[in-house]
Design goal:
The protein has 537 residues and is α/β, with parallel strands linked by helices. 39% of the residues lie in helices and 13% in strands. It folds into 2 domains: 243 residues, Periplasmic binding protein-like II (D-Maltodextrin-Binding Protein, domain 2); 229 residues, D-Maltodextrin-Binding Protein, domain 2, CATH 3.40.190. Helix 5 crosses helix 19, helix 19 crosses helix 22 and helix 20 packs antiparallel against helix 21. The relative contact order is 0.17.
């Protein structure tokens, strides 16, 4: 599972969006051995694709793909547009503006025809009811891949008044496949040099190990985070439900928001300790996304909350900053210490973390074509093609392993720059744990990929997925949905406590008490009444 990355949206902007909104922008699965230009087995007629259609598309950094020197020679992209008789108008978003842009576009009725994003459930339901988003057809049989994924139990919470208004960007097919979604990476070589050859069995042991390494490497940060949201990784070792601030938990026979639970106190105290003891990077609150990751790769920190897998570019960054050091021998995964119940927990939940949306103003003609494209992009054929390139040109399958055929100075990002961005529109990378991803030609990256798979399987055996209840998640009440609009405030308030002075638990209690005015008691009352009606325990 890829990491959740969020951009703060000001309260004033959110309120403005909510008041302005009054309504607003098939290929079947195919064998991976099918050539890119060969038609897939579908139910569509030739007439369905006879008219050329332009679709505006927003996905992360898409403009860079279209502006790349080799963009016009992107065979995979060209075959896709020819296959569906479309042209794509790129609409740029980045990790620093993607959520804010979507809300501004929604307010001004300028949403792209297809856009990847993540919005909280309250905004999502409001957009659906006000016509900002276009609902999916009730009959999805013309889109077999789409139909398959939309029948998954985990998508139930996305229904609004009986209809779906988005397509989840699946990356796996099991709630536990997110087990590396909140990883702890660390300099295994530095830990061993400091005399630590076993994983910490408690937070206190992690703290001691980190301080010992910092003593041997003056000037480094003990811990960096990929972004502020990854601070919540800390709660896996005490109260896993708090790994997402919007989660609820059941205590004493009653459902309550996780952030209101006394079980959150341990993680809050630990985060403050990390900061006051000089372990947590002093700049964590003002950094941009991935700054903490870059510090880790550049040898400026011992541990990192984030970085599920490592790319060739990231290995190159490590090599440059750490000459003579083997990345595959230096960088390890740290299993979280056991929680109070003795279990080690990993992230779990819906096998998607974001969605693809369509504006309510999108014509039926464009919508049908967009769904045909999405259905194809959700197939294994396109996923393999988009991530690995063309079989027997860019890779080959040898003894069941996907082996690169690229020359030493070639990369798929250079050969297929548009596809390199567009491939994430319908789904994120699900192939590594399926054994369908090309092994890097760089031996260090290849070794780290193997370590990632081995760690995934180790955690599958050793750890427990955090509690998940999709039936409960599907509960929608006015007060519960309203509470979701303050989700980003909760994360900001955690940061304030981490940076604050005085008793962190007392400060957190005051903050939680303040949320009563934002509808916590009403939400708890409504949710428990609805859960009782549905027999959810």
């Amino acid at each position: 599972m890829k990491l959740k990355q969020r951009v703060k949206v000001g309260v004033a902007l959110l309120l403005a969006v909510m008041t302005v909104l009054t309504g607003c922008g098939k290929g079947g699965d195919q064998s991976p051995n099918t050539s890119p230009g060969q038609a897939a087995n579908t139910t569509q007629n030739a007439d369905d694709l006879s008219k050329p259609i332009e679709l505006s598309v927003a996905v992360w950094d898409i403009q860079a793909g279209f502006e790349a020197p080799n963009a016009k020679d992107d065979t995979v992209y060209n075959d896709l547009t020819e296959k569906f008789n479309i042209t794509i108008k790129p609409i740029q978003i980045t990790w620093n503006d993607w959520q804010e842009k979507a809300k501004v576009w929604a307010a001004s009725k300028q949403l792209p025809d297809m856009f990847a994003n993540e919005v909280d459930m309250g905004v999502y339901q409001t957009w659906a009811k006000q016509g900002v988003l276009k609902p999916l057809p009730d009959d999805l049989s013309p889109y077999p891949n789409l139909q398959k994924f939309m029948s998954d139990e985990s998508v139930k919470p996305l229904k609004v008044d009986g209809k779906f208004y988005s397509i989840p960007r699946f990356g796996s097919e099991d709630i536990g496949d997110a087990r590396l979604g909140r990883p702890i990476r660390y300099r295994m070589d530095w830990a061993e040099q400091a005399g630590f050859t076993k994983e910490p069995q408690s937070f206190e042991e992690f703290l001691a190990m980190t301080k010992a390494v910092m003593k041997q490497h003056p000037g480094i940060a003990g811990l960096t985070v990929n972004n502020k949201g990854y601070l919540l990784t800390q709660f896996l070792g005490s109260f896993p439900e708090m790994v997402a601030t919007r989660n609820w938990t059941q205590e004493n026979g009653k459902w309550i928001p996780a952030f209101t639970s006394e079980r959150a106190y341990t993680g809050i105290q630990q985060l403050r300790t990390l900061y006051t003891d000089g372990v947590l990077d002093k700049d964590f609150a003002i950094q941009k996304d991935a700054d903490g990751t870059n510090k880790f790769l550049s040898g400026q920190s011992f541990a990192l909350y984030g970085l599920e897998g490592v790319t060739d570019d990231q290995v190159a960054t490590f090599k440059k900053a750490n000459p003579g050091v083997s990345a595959s021998k230096a960088i390890g995964y740290l299993n979280i210490w056991p929680a109070a119940d003795g279990k080690r927990y990993t992230l779990a939940g819906a096998p998607y973390w974001s969605n693809t949306f369509f504006p309510g103003t999108l014509s039926d003609e464009k919508f049908k074509r967009a769904l045909q494209v999405m259905d194809y992009m959700m197939s294994d054929e396109y996923r393999v093609l988009g991530i690995n390139g063309i079989e027997n040109v860019d890779y080959k399958v040898e003894n069941g392993q996907y082996v690169s055929l690229l020359k030493q100075d070639e990369t798929l990002a250079d050969k297929y720059p548009i596809t390199n961005k567009l491939v994430w529109l319908a789904a994120w990378d699900p192939l590594l744990y399926k054994g369908k991803k090309v092994v890097s030609s760089d031996p260090e990256t290849a070794a780290l990929m193997k370590l990632q798979i081995d760690t995934f399987n180790r955690f599958k055996q050793e750890d427990t997925p955090m509690p998940v209840n999709f039936e409960f998640d599907a509960i929608s009440t006015p007060a519960k949905n309203k509470l979701l609009t303050v989700d980003s405030n909760i994360m900001d308030d955690i940061v304030k406590v981490v940076l604050g002075k005085g008793d962190p638990i007392a400060q957190w209690k005051e903050i939680v008490k303040g949320y009563d005015a934002k509808g916590v008691p009403e939400a708890i009352k409504e949710v428990n009444e609805e859960a009782a009606k549905r027999g959810i325990k």
